[in-house]
Specification:
Beta-Lactamase; 8-stranded antiparallel β-sheet; 8 helices; 254 residues; globular
């Protein structure tokens, strides 16, 4: 598949229940066939039906608490902090975090004591910074960064750069993260490489979902680094649609 290849829309939208009042993905955010194709590919690559199947109320309470802490503080909470906010004991929180790691919804260190990320947020400096109005967080990838505002119901400023040349890329949202206000440079695009491995999107899929200042730089970078990897090229608006579809449901219904 070439970077500019047209992708057919899925014949019928799939929906995954995440909990009371939350359905994944938010297809109402999508009007582009290519954005729909990215979301559908993500569902398949990451086996999302299996990932979310049977998630318990306590698991989801902890997951949501982690995301809210990131949005408020810019970093992951400690196990003790999660215990305080959820009313669960530290041992219970550790067990639930381990379950969430098994679903690839939370990233933990080897000891299981430190949260390293919770999609769309990460402790790593990925080069995708999101300013939520006083709080700055790192996002896992370009699509994750574009979904933060809608998920958190607030306007954001995204600061990233072209993977090929390093030119600054900035995206501002409006309407509490629901709409694009502006994106610079004008010709900026996103490439979504279709790769999922090791039961971890952060170390596979997220490493090949990135911004470029132009199609020419995307083509040059891809030819030098991933000439044989299938992927989908998106405009910023199409990538924004995909980000909203994926991440708006993550805190919905609360």
């Amino acid at each position: 598949m070439t970077a500019n290849q047209t992708v057919d829309a899925a014949p019928s939208p799939r929906e995954i229940p995440l909990g009371p009042g939350a359905i994944f993905p938010d297809w109402s955010a999508v009007n582009s066939d290519k954005a729909r194709a990215v979301v559908d590919a993500f569902i398949d690559l990451a086996s999302l039906e299996d990932r979310w199947r049977g998630i318990g109320e306590a698991e989801d309470t902890v997951r949501r608490a982690v995301l809210r802490h990131y949005a408020a503080r810019g970093h992951a909470p400690s196990i003790a902090a999660l215990g305080d906010v959820t009313g669960l004991g530290s041992d219970a929180v550790r067990g639930l975090l381990k379950q969430l790691k098994g679903r690839d919804l939370i990233l933990l260190d080897d000891a299981g004591e430190t949260i390293l990320g919770a999609y769309p947020f990460t402790e790593r400096d990925t080069g995708h910074r999101v300013d939520l109005g006083g709080t700055t967080v790192s996002a896992m990838c370009a699509i994750d960064a574009l979904g933060v505002g809608a998920m958190c119901d607030r306007d954001v400023a995204i600061h990233s750069s072209c993977r090929a040349c390093g030119e600054a890329i900035e995206i501002i949202t409006r309407d509490r993260g629901a709409a694009l206000d502006r994106a610079t440079p004008e010709g900026a695009v996103v490439w979504v490489g279709l790769r999922y491995a090791g039961a971890c999107a952060a170390s596979s899929l997220c490493t090949v979902m990135t911004f470029f200042c132009s199609d020419a730089h995307l083509d040059r970078w891809r030819g030098a680094n991933y000439p044989d990897l299938n992927g989908i090229r998106l405009s910023i608006d199409e990538a924004f649609q995909a980000g909203k579809a994926i991440f708006t449901p993550m805190l919905a219904g609360t």
